[in-house]
Structures are given as structure tokens and as C-alpha cells.
Amino acid sequence: MAAVDARTGGMSMGLFVVRHQHDPERCPAGDPDLGAALLNHLSRPTAKRQGIQVKGEAVVQGEHTLYLILEAGEEDGVRRFLEPFAMAGSVDVYPASTCARVVASGGCAAAPPAVDGEVASMDAEEACQRAIEAGLVVHRAHPLNCETSIPALLGGVVMPNAHFYVRNHFQIPDLDPEGWRLRVTGLVERELSLSLRDLHNLPTQTVVVTLECAGNGRALLDPPVEGERWGLGAVSTAEWTGVPLVEVLDRAGATAGATEVLFRGADGGEVEGRPGSTRFERSLTLDIARDAEVLLAYTMNGEALPVQHGYPLRAIVPGWYAVASVKWLTDLELIGIPFRGHYQTDKYLYEREEGGRVVTEPVTLQRVRALITEPRADEEVGPGELAIRGVAWSGTAPVARVEASVAGGPWLEARLVGDRHRHSWQWWELITRLDCPGPATLRARATDLAGRIQPEGQEWNRHGYGNNAVHGVDVVVRKEGR
Ligand SMILES: Nc1nc2c(c(=O)[nH]1)N[C@H]1C(S)=C(S)[C@@H](COP(=O)(O)O)O[C@H]1N2
Ligand SMILES: [Mo]
User: pTM higher than 0.90 for the full model?
Assistant: First the structure.
């Protein structure tokens, strides 16, 4: 029996590897008519009519052996489709999977992290497969964590949703939009329970905001630190639409004792050092939440928020490291004491030693940073004119200046390109020259209007947050006339 996928209402498709072998004396490919008939039988439209998708086929040279990769609803259908091959020789059918699915289904020893309570979770294998197909660099399949590849940053103002980096602490919850509500509780005059439709009927706002994971650049730290091994692609920009948080807060009415708003996600599970199950939760003081113009977003780049980015609703906290932008929101709770949850006080702190003492400071605004997206690392360039391009952003203040340096030369001011959005990265370019053949390093650094500038070297901290050291890209200059 074919399985019916509850979510799509359609048939769930399985992957099969097929091996067909025949006697060299009875090779059907040697008979022009039979060969042509088999080719036609394998044609994609013919296969499709039988509910089969041919994903790949190859003949092992000199072995009279054919391998097929097929997608189909059921094994019996595959066997029926292969009858012409069965008449010519043997047919073996193997139910199969993809590498992404095997890894994501827990090929690794660890049990999959739980989703809190009775919340259904999205098919982890599917999420991972999609990320790979979109060209994201997967760091962990379960829960899914993947970054944007730097070359993919090239071009547009925003990142297409499929290329936007994904950072999850738990399994992706799959929330039913019908039953879903945003509850507003705690120190409020009126408790609220808002459906998606209620939210759609509230005033809307659209903003272009860059999200960056506080761990972006962690993999470059020396000595290495624990945590997801992010290169420099745990950053992306999108246009978000939703309801300003203040609209909801004003309707609920904060009572006199309320000082913070707690954002609770639907996802959760076990975390080290905390009993029971922990939800993904973060708070902001009410003052900061109002000043930062927090958005409750349900649209990303004009599309419904994708599941992995927080469907049906997420917070967007402009300018802050993205840990503050809680996905899969279920509750806003107004509280009167500082929140001390795991992701607020155990993690997301800059922690370093100063004079034999451990000092900590919470991770808040994105530090100023420029990335070079063009040329790419190890690319062959020139000699002659050279265009260096990239993005730059800062949570503290708008980007004032980007400078680039070529092969150890002086800092040259780059041109800022395109529209300015307060909380979006800024494109920049510098047209210069690079004439001397051989290896060369390109570097770029940004300064913001608050006068903050990127450090030359890393500022190491125990969890590897906020590493905004100057980005360098090594290229090779070709010899003249090649
Ligand atoms: N509910 C929930 N919200 C979350 C997280 C999470 O694991 N669960 N991860 C946070 C972190 S650390 C980052 S960097 C961003 C990533 O957002 P994205 O996956 O849409 O890129 O979501 C934030 N919001
Ligand atoms: Mo993050």
C-alpha cells in the first residue's frame, strides 16, 4: 500500500534503486528495435504516466548492468514499470534514501531533540533535503542548522527564502494555522488570544532587516570554541511584513508593574543544566522593545513565513543578534522581574576573563561588520582592474564607511551602493587595480556612525559570539597574457 501524506493529502513518494542485469548473448541494447523500445519506455513522460519519476540512470560499461534511481509511490508500481526489463534479465529493487535523509533521520547516535509537549514537528529529513537542494551549507541536520554560502550572497538586496540561513535549537515545530493563537498574558489589563486572521486585521508594517546569528564567524576563532561551526554565512536579509509589537501591547495594556516582555516559541526540549523541558524563550525590556520597533512578522519576502523560519509568526528585532527574533511564537507574557531563562542567562553572553575574574555581558546589538562577496576565496583574478564587492551592516548605528585594502596596501574608501535601509546590510564596491602576479589578500572593514570599527584580529570569548574581525579573502593574480 502506498502511504498517504497527511500534510499534503497526496501520495508520499519513495526512492528506489534498481539493478537490471542480462546475459551478454541476449543484450537488448544490441537489438536496434528492442533498444529503442526500452529507451522509450524509460522516457520521462512515459514513466510519469505510470506514476514513476526517473531520477537517474547509468549503465556500467562492459558489465551488461543498468542502474536506475526511481521515485514512486510504491514498490509494486516500480516492479510493474520494470516488466520489460524483467523479460530481458534480472531485476532487483532496493528501497532507498538520500544522504541528507539518512543523516537527518539520526544516522548519528543521538536521539532527535524533542519538540515540547504535543506540538507536531516538521519532517526533519524533508527540511534538510530542501536546504541541500538550495545550496545551503548544512552544519547539523537534526535540528537543522545551515548557512548561506558566501557566493550566494552576491546580487540582490534580500536573500531568497530558500537561501536564507537557518538556526534551530530544537526540531522545527509544525503548527496548525487554524488552531494556532498568539496569547498575550501576564501583567496586562486585558489578556488576548489572537488568531492569524486577527493579526492580519491589525495595522501592518514592512521592513528590510538583516538577521545575523551571534555565532557567525565562530569557526574562525582560535583556539576553537564549542557550538555550531558557523563560517561567515550565518547572516541574511529579508523584507518582513507583520504587526508592530506595540500595536499588540497597546491593545493588551501593560499594568504598572510590567517591565519586560517575554517571547515564547513553540519549540523546546532538554537542555544541559535545566530540569525537565525548556522552551525557546527570550525577553526584552518594554523600553527596548518599543525603541527597537519590534515586528511580529508573518510574511518573509512577500511569501508566508516558511516553516523553518517560524511559521506562522516570529519576532523580528531589528539591529539585534537574531537570537532575540524568536520564531514559532505562541505567547507574549508581560513580567515584572528580569527573565532568567536558559537562552537569556546561560547562553548568549560574552564571557571572558579579566584580571583573573570571569566577566559576562549579554549579547545584544549586531557588531559592525563588512564581508567581501566578490571575488571569492581562492579565485584567480586580473591582472589589471579589479572590482571588490560586498555587504556591510551594524546594529549600533548606520554604516558610515567601508574601506578595502589590497595586498597589504592602504585602506581605500569603497562606494556604498543602492538604497539605505536602517537595519539592512548595505552593498558596497571598490574598483581598484591588482597588477602584481601571485597570491594577494583583500581585506574590508566597516565603520558605523557611532564610530565603531571592526577589530583587526579576533576578540575571543568562551562561546564565540560576535566575532567581527576584519574579513580577508585570498586570491591569486594571474600572470600577464594568460
Ligand atoms: N523559537 C526559536 N526561535 C529562534 C531560534 C530557535 O531555535 N527557536 N533560534 C534563534 C537564533 S539563535 C537565530 S540566529 C535565529 C535564526 O533565524 P532563521 O533560522 O530564520 O535564520 O532565530 C532565533 N529564533
Ligand atoms: Mo543565532
Answer: no
